[in-house]
Amino acid sequence: MAQTKSESFILPALPYKEDALEPVISAKTLSFHYGKHHQAYVNKLNELVSGTEFASMKLEDVIVKTAGQTDKAGIFNNAAQVWNHTFYWNSLSPKGGGRPTGGIGEKIAADFGSYENFAKQFAEAGAAQFGSGWVWLVEDGGVLKIVKTPNAENPISQKKGKALLVIDVWEHGYYLDYQNRRGDYLKMVIDKLLNWDFAAKNLG
Ligand code: MN
């Protein structure tokens, strides 16, 4: 039987229109970030896993099996970036932001003292990540924590708990809208876009 060339991994649909996050994140930024950057990670990953054991694996398994292995860095970086960006799109919502309610709201208040403390610490951690990376809200051992990771690293690869929310702090995520003002981007995303329903679902 002739082998058909099929893509192992696909770019998931954006959960909203490209202009849905304006004015916090412009349609132009989303068009490049999703349509070019995220798509490029998917394309490169498919190219790298073609004909390997990784081609038929779940994305999460590819991340776990290639994390920390120098000779698999290309596959790891692209697999993790595909996963991280899909998680990021879902961490944002046109109706997001503000103080979370319900169980997740109580947990934020309990583990950070208040929502305001959480918002301040989340923005500070994102601003403090030197160079490219991500800032995550995770649940680790029953406690909510803020974790920052460099480049393509994530809580799966670094075994730092279960991801609940993430903000991309790579320059390509904010430069068109905010130039060098990463702190302003973080504050706006936290205030206006964080998808607490997604965080609550991930908390379980
Ligand atoms: Mn990005």
Would you mind describing this structure in some detail?
With 204 residues, this protein is mainly alpha-helical. Helices cover 48% and strands 11% of the residues. It contains eight helices and three strands; from the N terminus they run H-H-H-H-H-E-E-E-H-H-H. Strands 2-1-3 form a three-stranded antiparallel beta sheet. A hairpin with a 2-residue loop joins strand 1 (133-140) and strand 2. Helix 1 runs antiparallel to helix 3. The longest helix is centred in the N-terminal third of the chain and has 23 residues, at 27-49. The radius of gyration is 17 Å and the shape is globular. The N and C termini lie far apart (44 Å). Manganese (II) ion binds next to helix 1.
Quickly describe the structure.
The protein is mainly α and 204 residues long. The protein contains eight helices and three strands; from the N terminus they run αααααβββααα.
What brief labels describe this structure?
204 residues, binds manganese (II) ion, Helix Hairpins, mainly alpha, three-stranded antiparallel β-sheet, minor pseudopilin epsh fold
Going by helix content, strand content and strand pairing, the class is mainly alpha
Bound molecules: manganese (II) ion
**CATH topology value of the largest domain:** minor pseudopilin epsh fold
Q: Helix proportion of residues, in percent?
A: 40-55%
Layout: helices, strands, pairs:
Layout: H1 27-49, H2 59-66, H3 73-91, H4 102-112, H5 115-128, E1 133-140, E2 143-150, E3 162-168, H6 175-178, H7 182-192, H8 196-203
Antiparallel strand pairs: 1-2, 1-3
Helix pairs in contact: 1-3, 2-3, 5-7
The structure holds manganese (II) ion.
